[in-house]
Amino acid sequence: MLLHIVARGRIGRGPESELVDRYLKRVSWPTRVTELPDTGGRMPDLPPGTRRVLLDEKGDNLPSRVLAERLQAWREDGVRETRFLIGAADGFGDAERDAADLLIAFGQATWPHLMARAMLAEQLWRATSILANHPYHREG
Q1: Rg (CA), the chain
Q2: Closest CA to 120 of 1, 2, 4
Q3: Is 96 helix (H, G, I), strand (E, B) or coil?
Q4: Among 36, 40, 60, 85, which residue has the fewest nearby CB atoms (within 10 Å)?
Q5: How far apart are CA 134 and CA 130, in angstroms?
């Protein structure tokens, strides 16, 4: 299953970009990153059967294992792509939230988009590592 990050704004070159790249290179599943202009327009349409995950302040604070289990269930159901959407500064509207398969948040703090992208990349690496029984992840 393709893990596809679609984010508003350009990350450019710098420590955040290097961190995203470092984690995504470790992910054993196919990955892709698409950057969109900061403002204007809507998110691209999704191919049929694609799961839509929004990073949103109203999302759930999922433990890493729960995210891993959700991705595994979708993969086993034959989902070909899970698209992780990071919106503009104003976030997502109610209609976009309602259309999502999952809303996730990284705590109650407000995070810059570049950090949110890096944290998402780390969580995707962690989720796939958990599913591969990698000994790095610890709970409790």
Answers
A1: 14
A2: 4
A3: helix
A4: 40
A5: 6
